[in-house]
Amino acid sequence: MNIIEIENLTYSYPAAQKPILNNITLQIEEGDFLAVVGNNGCGKSTFCKTLNGLIPHFIDGDFSGSVKVGGLNTLESDVGTLACKAGYVYQDFENQIVRPTVLDDASYACLNYAMKDYEERGRRALSLCGLEGREDDYIWQLSGGQTHLLALAGAVSLRPDVLILDEPIAQLDPSHADRIYEVLRELNEKHGKTIIVIEHHTEYIADYCKHVMLMRNGGIAWKLPTVEALQRVEELEECNIFPPQVTIAAFRMKKADRLPQTEKLPTTVEEGKQTFGGLHWHASEAQKPAKEGETLVRFDDVSVAYRSVKGEERCVFNHLNLDIHRGEKIALIGSNGAGKSTMMKLMVGLLRPGSGRILLKNEDTRQKKTEQLSRTISLVYQNPEEMFIKDSIEADIAYAMQIRDVSGWQEKTEALLERFRLSELRKRDGRLMSGGQMRRASLAIGIALDPEILLLDEPTANLDIATRKEIMRMLTDMKDITETVMIATHDMQLVCEWAERIIVLSGGNVVADGLRDEVFGNRSVIEQVGIRPPEIFTMGRTLNEEALCYTVDEFLRDFREV
Fold first, then answer.
1. What is the largest distance, in Å, between two alpha-carbon atoms of the chain?
2. Containing H/E element for 162?
3. In angstroms, rounded to a whole number, what is the distance separating the alpha carbons of residues 57 and 65?
4. H or E element: which one contains 163?
5. How far apart are CA 397 and CA 55, in angstroms?
6. Averaged pLDDT of the chain
7. In DSSP terms, which residues pair with 226 in a beta bridge?
């Protein structure tokens, strides 16, 4: 039985030159777990917003064709009625949290509908989403993953047949990401919910989804069973979708005649054990430590704690000691809430330590105003839209230089627009650009004052893999502007391909600090912090405990037939 039926759906945003969705006809069966994939701007989020009536009821534009969800025509039903058929958890899910306590928020939608059993529905939704026992907690006591589950519980409380999630794990550490998908699997398999996710992480698609739908040029290229879909490596890569690393490795081996042409490509590590079982590992030269430069930042016995409205103070750092040296490319990793963003805010003076000192070039940051520190150190926020304060990105990039009377700021602004491929977008409001464009613009703003130290908080979150790779190239190319860079991230591929030093935070302390072999080769650290190495690294260690391969290229180089 089809839960969603779409016929000849075409939609254009106001003043758009061509439709973002073009003549789509599609059926989705009840009980499916569907991944929607496609490159940035192909219409994935727009498509999903037609399923709950936001388009066309709240978002204007030219709409034609029909969309039926659970038998209801979205044109003939109001958004409130459709919310009981198709629940939606948005990419910026924090904006869906509207009440101060967990149960209050989970049951709020039902209360809004004047349902007499609103509290019972809220409790049931929290139980289904793994938040049982947190009913009386304040929402700010939750981790990022728990907050995402609360947004999901708010949608589940209305008991819709369909649940739609836009990039559900984009800003989460691996343990929280796993938990989100385990909850979705249970809702799908045990409670019969039809799940639709917009997802870039194909390793999760391989593990959890039943079908994959590729969107391209405003239409549906195909909808296929997951195993069959992930075999289409070249077609996916043309659309900037990268299959699991084990799949790519096997595909490249087949092209090089290192595997039989009839061999089915593996999509998981478990399947890869059979495909690659005959290969032998040959150790290659280990990564060498970079020469240690001048100390630019020193954390000297720093402690930080946040006051709490309810419960004890939350200690973020406890007598932290750490040095950052000139010329280092550092990845700062740890689970959600480990203190990565707090560390960066301390360095730029947005937060002050409760005790201890932070020295920036041997000067105590407490003795400096944040605008004085900004000449030396710059922070690019996790949410790039927070960097935009003007009505155009040209004005945003120029702003810091203008107010400081930087000589030649006009020429510098022009050069930054050119460098980050933003010249044609100069008059656009940054908040209205695509995710990749926002990231490029925020980087341009961050380096406008030529800081000696650049801090980036989750620079690749919410981006497709092609855009993530572009950001990585830009980071490598920025050595002439700022030679000392620290990135806080959950993107382990970025960590492995870019970083020369990895700092791991857990429980207010640095639990590991060194080269990638020293961090990822230490199983106790990985288990303690919940680090998820790249899939190809796990594949290599599954075949040989001593193997340390971080990229597909390294795997193909180090694992051979003889």
1. 70
2. strand 162-166
3. 14
4. strand 162-166
5. 33
6. 90
7. none
